[in-house]
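Hey team,

Sharing the Apoptosis-inducing factor B run so nobody has to redo it. Sequence (502 residues) first:
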Amino acid sequence: MISTKTVVVLGSAYGGARAAQLLAAGIPKEWRILLIDRNSHTNNAYILPRLSVLPGHEHKAFIPNTKVFMTDQPPELHRRLQAHITSFSQKSLTLSQAFPEHGLPTQTVDFDFAIYALGSQLPAPLNLWGTDASGNPIPRKPSKGRQLPIYRGLKTEGIAWLQAHQKLIEESPSVLVVGGGALGIQFATDIATVHPTKPVTLLHSRDRLLPRFDEGMHVGIIQALESISNVDVILGERLDLSSVDEKPGKTNERGQRIVRTVKGREIAADLILLCTGQSPNTELLREMDPSTVNPGDRLAHVLRTMQLGVLPPQDIPTTEKPSRPVGVVVQENQTAHEPVSPESTSELASAVEKIALADAEASNDNGEGTSPSSNDDTQPEEVAVEEPLAKTPYPNIFVIGDAADAFGAIPAGHNAYYQAEIAARNVLHLIKRAEGVEGLEEPLERYQPGLPAIKVSLGLGKSIYQSRGQIGHVSNVPDDLQAASLWPFFGIIITNDDQMYE
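Structure output:
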């Protein structure tokens, strides 16, 4: 008989996988963990931008989950399930299929605790699924008629998708990249260095790149862009999105699509990549209880314990803002809570310092970033101790990663990782407290983000970073951005590149 004492972890990327590992290491033996994701493998978002441009490494982006729980023996009760989550409530969820072979005879799964780590949807140039957070198709922008393959969560499909995207870029005589966040910077420099005769234009609505970081980052990136002869940078002009959506669109005598900025500048390109925003995957929470999700930025309201909370009425804006931009962030080993268990020394800590993830900017009305507040580069002030169980109607639901409004934490894998540690340890604490274990009267752990850190690829072999207030350049960066360094986080040690075909 399968135990009904269940913790579900929704999403098996950086935060979800880390939460599942800590739970598996400490949960009582009669409990089960269900790790649920719509993908067969964990998609390594760090390297997807590079591998969608550069051929030959695409198989390295999809990491198997056969050893994700990091246990010495195959877990008896814990399971990693590939399925869509179609509905969610405080004590149960519905899957797209049943798993009778795993003791789940119906599509309904009851649970005691949930860790919601569904992250966010990447913008269209990197959205393999081709859908938004609600599952609605995202229309592809002008692409000379080439259609990308259908992706339904399998590694073989993901490889085919990346290969098709590579051909799309290769066959496009010119490219316009819209959005000067780190994703846009990486796309522009990667395309220009992989295809050195292809004209590439980078359009950004602000006069400064990456405004949440030191001005030296902007200066260094601009210098790198200026050193690439086939890149043209346009700052301080916002794309008029209506010119992209016009049907039929305006073209020139060469058949290039012509779009315009708000100021009226016309730009011609064969391929347009809109790198202007990601959307938190919080629709399931909003459907369960609209007061848990801020309609302005679509982020879930959480307590410092990472438990799902309810927004005070005065904190809910009346107008909706667009999603946040994405880009590239590196691991920063600063947090208000240093890991307290041996498992916290996972390979992830070093791996994310070497490869790329998501940018740290807040959004404006075109999704390209806003000016920073005056204290963006300072450690947040300590907060008063709160008793979370008295402040939320959902003490058994935790939200981590890009879906959470986590006290100014930037949307990045390293933040999801540390939030997962807080959430997992708090779940274990609550389980033991409910079972009457002595000495567990102390409050739950609280999360506080560390200083922002970022690493931006500047084309093949080069990158720039800011960490702990220091700016530096890296050369001789491997073409695959050290993809193998992240696999040990999922329990797989890579000694030969051929192992990454699994």
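The first strand starts at residue 6 and ends at 10.

Ping me if you want the raw files.
A.
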